[in-house]
Specification:
CATH topology of the largest domain: Rossmann fold
Shape: globular
Strand order of the largest sheet: 3-4-8-10-9-11-12-13-14-15-16
Number of domains: 2
Distance between the termini: 54 Å
CATH class of the largest domain: Alpha Beta
Largest sheet: 11 strands, mixed
Number of helices: 16
CATH superfamily of the largest domain: Alpha/Beta hydrolase fold, catalytic domain
Length: 541
Amino acid sequence: MTDEYKEVSPVVQTTHGKVKGTLLKGIYDDQFYAFDGIPYAVPPLGTLRFKEPHALKPWHGIRDCSKPLNKCLQVSSVTKLVEGSEDCLYLNISVKTLIGDPMPIMVYIHGGAFKGGDSSRRAWGPDYFMKENVVYISIGHRLGPLGFLSFEDPTLEIPGNAGLKDVILGLEWIKANAVNFNGDPDRITIFGHSSGSMTVQLLLASPRAEGLFHRAILLAGISLEVNRLPQMEYRLAKHLGYEGENIDSQVLEFLLKADPHLLVSADFFTPVEKSQGISMAFRPSIESYVTPNAVLLAEPIDLQRTSWSNRIPIILGANSGEGMTVINFLKLNPTWLKNFQHNPERALPWTLRSRCDPGQRRQLGQELIHHFCQAHGHELTLNHGNAIMDLFNHGFVHTLDRLIQSRLTYGQAPTYLYRFDFDSPDFNFYRIRFMGKEQRGVGHVDELGYIFVLPATFKLDKSRPEFTAICQMVAMFVHFAATSDPNAPLTKELVEWKPVTRFGKRMVLNISEELKFIPHPDMPKLKFFDRLYEKAGVPLF
């Protein structure tokens, strides 16, 4: 064991007390230190349920942080059982070495539709990052109603977005403690996937997050409008047996007494709502009154135009088959197609659905289906599966493009665009889990197997192109975190990844068995989405 790793249970002083970590070995035998379950806020229990997080008081003695703690209370996407705990405001730190020059810090926000997910290394092992000189940190934050319920009555002090405020308090803790873990407080990169990427994007738009990080990576998740549904709190309470009126103070009093397991598992959407694809009751919202810690006081699209983050570099992108889940729905449930035949608005991006009247929604949905499927909604058959998938792929890429356009118009810093396109027969774990080994393609979440060790991950022979792709992805992300430039020594001989430009073709780094810088293959069809936004009178950026 080198001097670097002679300490098996290192103790580090933090702003709040001492923590003891542990020495671990990654899947390819790289050594690193892990400090798991470090508290960064008061447990949000009792009367603190739904409220913004409170700063922690220091503790005495040494806190054992050698094992991951509970994930936040949620319904498991696998077992469908309630798992986790309300007491979940902890962060996890993995660090390559505690000595030497301060290293860049990468802070990960997990996905899970704002209602599920696990921040710990049980779900997302940072082993590949530990090949590089980097501090990796993940933040546990409240989910579902516990993280995103809100009331308009200011006396209740629940303006919403508690889950986002958890992340912000975590980032403040990280900035204050960076040097204790051999990290550089002036080189903090936040990155997230899916709803975690949306969280990153909301923090980019929010004045409250200014100065807490210096670069950002958005993996497959953007929403320039929050699109939150009305009266979710009242509907939740009624579903759990509340019989009173829709009066904030009375609804809150009821929900504070409710069993937290019932709170997170309540499923109160009607069959009609479900057929329209409505599934996320609690998500970030625009806060209805000003508080010192407010995160969102306007739509992200409006905040983004003048945001401080227009001065910091970002990477963003998605997978080549983000719309593949459609194929799965069609295979598992043939009636799913009926939803499109009867409700063509199902095909529209959420923002257009929530901003058009029913007649316009229907018309725009029919135009979109006809453009991609060359058929009217009522004529759709299972043979249109690939065309519907293509439609959803483009819808996904179009939301990314809206943020790119905003950055190109109002920004002063580079925006790097990638497209993850590695179609592995046995290493794209989410596609395999949901669609079986026969289906090929690169679906939502498949890229995470190339930057994290997942429960399904196996050790690859180093001659395999998947192993090369892992090394390249992690090298580019860490080099970006260190220097603002993703062209790492490992990759810059192979390809030059340039930022997007206002004029000329939209170029993208295509990440597959080879790295190639190519014109984005989805761009030609995005113009149609632009026209739909124009017709609906919704600004693109």
